[in-house]
Every structure is written in structure tokens, then in C-alpha cells.
Specification:
6 helices; mainly alpha
Amino acid sequence: MTDPSEQHRDTDTESSGSWTPEVIDLLRDWQGRARRSSEEHYALATSLARSNIRFGIPVVALTTLVGTTVFASLQRSDVNSGFRIAVGMISVLAAVLASLQTFLRFGERAEKHRAAAERWASIRREIDTRLALSTRSNLGSLSDPQPILDRIRDKMDQTAQQSPELGETGWLRPQRRYPPWEGGAEPAESAQAPRS
């Protein structure tokens, strides 16, 4: 005799656990979101790393110049007061640049965006694999997609929470390159996907 709860479980799996075209479409939507997030985080990481270099090189050059000039001026007593003022102003400029570089934390922020980009790329690769294994001809023979969808959605939610903000302009570039979805309206299922 079969247990009614097992029979009910089997019915639920058969009715709701199939790889329908809608499930594939949802995965493709999530794939696009993960791709856009990954690319934008990589772009911001690169931009922040460049800004770090743009601030860092002048700071090093100016502080070296000031240090050398101050050391040389100690050797001579007949240094022009205009020269001393110029060295003092360069020293102040170097201090301001170093303070801005520290305050804006370009390197730290670049690393956070790079880590977020890697997490989003990992999710995209997982979705790529799932989509590659689910061809239209074998949809009926695949296992229940719900645990896979739940796991991917949980990863996306967690990654979105851990990722630094992209800002409004951060979303404009990749959306122009990759339209978020086709058909004019976002699928209802994708509303569950995390914002990032």
C-alpha cells in the first residue's frame, strides 16, 4: 500500500517540477542580469583602480620632489623666499592629494567591485551550464528545476546584498548593450530576482 503523502509528493513533482519554456526564459533573464552586473562591477573596478593610480603617481612624485627640495635647501642658507613658498605649496598639494586618495578609498572600492563581479560571473556561468544542459528535446527528462531555481535565486539575493552600489549611471551602459528582456514587459517571475 502506498503512503498518501508520498503519492501527493509525486503528483506535486510531476505537475510543478517540469522544465517549461517559462523556466528557461526565467533562467535567460537571470543570466542577462548576472552578465550585466558582472560587467558593470568589472568596469567600476577598473575605473576606480585607474583613479587610484591617477592620484597615487602625483602624490609620490610631489612628495619626492618636496622631500628632495627641502633636503637641498637645508644645505644652503641663501634660498629665495619665493622658492620656499613654492615648495610649501607643493607640499600642501601633495598632502591634499594623499588625503583625498585615502578618503575616497579607490583601491578598497575597486577590490569590492572586483569581488562582486566575480560572484556575479560565477552565477552567470552556473546559469550558462544549466541552459546548455537543457535543450528543448530533453526538457521532459530533466529533474525538478525548483531546487536549482531556488539555489540560483538565493545566490543572486546574497550577492546583491554583498555587492557595493552601482549607482544610476552604472546600470545605463550595460542596459544599452544588453537589453534586460524582450517583449516590452518584464516577466512576472523575474520580479523575484534581486536588484543590484
